[in-house]
Specification:
It contains 4 helices and 3 strands; from the N terminus they run E-H-H-E-E-H-H. The chain has 96 residues and is α+β, with helices and mostly antiparallel strands.
């Protein structure tokens, strides 16, 4: 079932704190939008829906530098220019 055809429930953070079980039941039939001072702040959904969204999403954009260096695919090759640090010295301090 597509998420657009599911029932969306909205509740305040106070309602959520007072009746978490109700929010969990509502999340079985669709996303639960939790508001904080009238502004949408969080979404509660079933783990199944989360896993579907995660699997359908794009590959992660953020990788560590170590992952980027270890990637041996030709399209993963990149040039890395180390920026020059001005006004910074690595000389040991003098203690007189």
């Amino acid at each position: 079932m597509d998420i657009t055809t599911k029932t969306t429930t909205t509740m305040s953070s106070r309602q959520f704190n007072q009746d978490t079980a109700l929010a969990k039941r509502a999340a079985r039939s669709g996303p639960v939008i939790i508001t904080d001072r009238g502004k949408r702040s969080h979404v509660l959904m079933s783990i199944e829906e989360y896993e579907k969204l995660k699997a359908a999403g794009r590959p992660e954009k953020h990788r560590t530098l170590a992952d980027a260096i270890a990637d041996d695919r030709p399209e993963a090759d990149f040039d890395f220019d180390i920026p020059e640090l001005k006004g910074f010295s690595l000389r040991p301090p003098k203690f007189d």
